[in-house]
Structures
1.
Amino acid sequence: MDLSGKKALLICVETGKGFSCSDSLQELEDLCGTLEIVVYDKLIQRRDRPDPVFFVGSGKLQKIAETVKTGEVELIIVDDELTPVQHRNLEEQLKCLVMDRTQVILEIFARHATTAEGKLQVELARLTYELPRLRGKGLFLSNPGGGVGTRGPGETILELDRRKIKDRIAHLKRELKKLTLNRANVRKARLESGYPIVSIVGYTNAGKSTLLKRLAREEGILVSSKLFSTLNPATRRVKMPGGRVFLFSDTVGFIRKLPHTLIEAFKSTLEEVLFADLLIVLVDASDPLYNDKLKATLNVLEEIKALEKPRMVVFNKIDQIPIERMEMLKLEHPDALFISAKTGQGIPELLRSVEKFVLSTEPCVTVKINVTMLAELEKFRELATITQIGSNESSETLRFRICGPESVVKKLKSYFEGGHETDGAENLA
């Protein structure tokens, strides 16, 4: 759908719960900016709950209709998810294209999906959203593609459209299941590699991709101020201060009212965080609504059952705030870390803290190693923390303390204490 340049009127109902309408509409305006929609005006109505028929009351509806008649507005965007009834009634009453917050987010995801899996996930989310809203000639229907079939005896065009969408949804789920199995195999290989995994999560535009780029010292990672510029997890090797290598990954940005259809469609992607040893919850320190957005992030983690994972809160963009604000944040969040992914400030402290936490959770063993194997031992310093302890046991052996993931520690102990026939060094490196 080409929305570029279209003038939109944004509408919000102020119920006194959650984000204020002024803040929420500002976020919606940012979302519209990502789609190059021009915001003509914003309208707020205060009421206990949205009207079940038209979302807004009759007086506000009349005012909106008068604005549409002037020709200055081509699009109405509601800052909530409309019910199919509300959506239909608004379009029929206003004779104008109506979108809700969910559709805007889905449209952004559709534009930013680049991988085969991402495109399938977005299409599944869109069709799941559109199916109950399909009516007449399919006013809300995007291009579902594939699996069209033919109309059966006595089957209306609407029934045919619904059947086509249901068939397409079933096909998408089958294709995603195949890709999920492939993702599981990749994940299994990553877990078996023995490298600790750290996932960077946070509200959209908190700077996750910028942080990953800084940590990995790479130029090839997309960094954008546009919302939801990252849909597919990117994983990079990062050399830690002690010489070990950890795997860091960023994820799709979270947002308030992240559509449930998207959470379901992207479940296999979001669930990557379940397999992390540690979560970095990144927060934009310059955002006045940082606390509400932190809560929204934790709500999504709870929905994907990742709230119990070990996590550390990290405030980003401290280069954009005065020292007084940072001192206030430190008082409110004494356990948090403070960084600027853009300038590099605080990054060494972050890496040391991550390394210290992960190492504190790892098992250790003491191993006697023949001096002829010392060169071989050096190959594994990326995978484990290796420290010589005590003096020489003899002229032929030395004692080492080896700490690391349980699978790695067991294999190294077996390998260096004579079990060379087990997995071999090449399967550990």
Note: The domain at 194-360 is CATH 3.40.50.300 (Rossmann fold).
2.
Amino acid sequence: MKKNSRSIPKLSRLSAAVTAATIAFGSVSTVEAANWFKLRGTEPGGTAHTLQVWGFLQPTFVNYDTGLISGAVGKASPLNGTLPIPGTVPPRRSDKSSFYLRRARIGIRGTMIPISNDIDYFILTEMGQNGITRPDHNMTILDASVTFNQLAGQRRDDGSKGLGVRFRMGQFLFSQTSETLSNSTPGRRVHIWMPEATFQNALGRRVYDQGPGNFTGTKVDGARDIGLEAFDWTEFGDPNSPYELTYSLGVSNGDGIGIQNADRNYRYYGWLSFAKLFDNTRGPRRHDAQVYGFYQTGNIRFNNDLNGDGVPDHTQMNPATGLGGLSACGGVDACRITNAGNAKDLNQKYWGIGVQYFNKPFKGYGQIRFNAQYEKAQGLTFDGQQVPSALLSGPLFENFGLRYNPNGVNEGFYIDAGYDIHKHLGIKKRTTINLRYDEYDRNKGNAGRAIHTEQLTLTGEYFFHKKARLTLSYGWRNWDANDRTAGKIIGSSGTPAARHNGNAVLSGVGNRFGAQVTFIFKNVLLR
């Protein structure tokens, strides 16, 4: 990949990891370990209320230092002079700089008093400018669930809590990567952007194989679905500093926000975590150390051979260009209508493991945060738009739509650290410094589609109030297609066409800057 002023600072993978870890353990922010099943699915015992209105706003400005696509050859040459899609502002993906209302969420939660003290509810809506509200930007229901606590673990005589089961039913954020669970709450969100692996693996949308070009017929699901979850947690040991074990098992439609089961397949979820609570702090900012793992799997019924020629669609029929294309069918809608009977169940798996730490171990010093996670997604992978140009994807999108890989392998990791610095600077208001390094390999091992990303994100936060803060993030990004080997050799460089054209697009994906203000509000209306 061509190196320029937009490239990530020269850090090896090892040095980046050591740098982040050193900051974490020698030097926080609002992201830390917490029990998200407890915080989002239940109400606190003894202080339950009937109706609490809550929500938050996040007006945002972002600027992408994006270069134009340059040097593409063959059938990819029309891309030259246009912006690469990853270097544009979502959700419109037409510009590289913009003010916008990134999130605007309002919801209600509480206990169904006087019906029952053991039934809790949680409702949250989204009105911001993002993939969840596209294309019409109307208000969308994110969460709408009811939790039944009748069989939850009971307190023992020694003060410890047994392990039982609670049932949550409706539309909500299912158990998966800790980053998506914590990002669902503004008090925990630090960096403006997610790690690339989580952003691409966890936030999905349903794709319809009978629409033009496998057009995405739904909104981004925000890692949510409709289904049923069984979960609970137990505490044991010293009541002033207990251990905690949490589990979750779930089943959902596997189809996203507001969609009934479309293919008679379901998605299955699992979560297991073990934590050490250091003191009596509770809630989203409790002091603890935690290890966790998550797993989900399910089939999607998808037509991978629309014209029935025995060759998977989007096979590189002309590998010399390094571009995909519908095999033989050519993107004609009639192929999709008359040959829709070739659909098959294609599997998806998504799993990961991670560690979290949040504490104030040294008197007179600030709080320390450290997060690290590895994740992997396997199976049916949607690659993004067939034409990777912000300008050209519009008119071509209805004909070519999305690329996909039935056997994709996508893996990545991140290391994230933070520290409260305001006391050292003589600042009265809380101020944090945060550093995260992440890598992601999309379609790893695929000769024509592999992409590698490296990102280093520096974020500072200034709290005007515990419910209002300013966040500044700067991200160094390095994206390349250097692992591709498909296609004929271009010129005398010895570079395969897929690699050459891939890097022609990705070399324009530059650094980015974001400024975001967060306002959180809540008010108990009925007790």
Note: DSSP finds eight helices and 18 strands in the chain.
3.
Amino acid sequence: APLHTVVDEADVELTAAWQRAGFTVRRREWEYAVPTDPRVTGLDAVLPPPGVTIVPAGQADEDLLRSVDRAIRAEVEASVGWQSMPAEVIPFPEGDTVVDPSKYAVAATSERYLGLIRVVVPIRPRIGLLAVRAGERRRGIARALLAHALETQHLAGHATAFTEVQESNRAASALFEGVGARRLSSNLELAR
């Protein structure tokens, strides 16, 4: 199995040491600081599309949450593959990728969940996952989920949230940069 490590791209010496050990750059992730104030982000008037509601974190039905998570992961794997997504460092029990359902808000219709966002706040708010089912994209669902999550963090007293975006994911970069996120740094994933 391949070995992986993540380094701060600004740490040239550490990166060079890993490369001397035979590691090569697999991908780059941008770290963003995202303002949470809806007046700053421009998300204060954002609503989900008709027929879609946002279910706040901790209120999602666990079975439906796990179902949409599995569906989205299968769609990603069938298209670009999870290797193109930001590195997840959450330890998952075998077969379960939703470790703490209370961290997820979801976009829902009366029949099913369409998308989800996971925000954890160990030290500072971090958006670890924002995803919408393939057939439901380009309707404003991701934007509505982001608006909800950022406003929730703003009301909790956090001025900024943080996230990582793989550099080739132009749609995600555009979404975050469109709400005033600024790049802070970049990380390199190295593999051997």
Note: The first helix runs from residue 12 to 20.
4.
Amino acid sequence: METRYFVAQDSTGERRRVRILPSDHDAGAAGHPAHLYALDDGTPVRRVDNDTFQIVSSGAYVTLVRD
């Protein structure tokens, strides 16, 4: 099984790897595939918009890093 992930950066410049996990739901409200997100240590991450995610446990925001 292939692990999908992307890199996100917080306000201090620290980069974290965010895993993309498949969801039990077929599609989100907008008809797009629904995914769940988590840090490598399993901490849940919530999607805010296309480039912004929130670490649920701390409330910290991270931004997608595009290389």
Note: Strands lie at 4-9, 15-22, 35-39, 44-47, 52-55, 61-64.
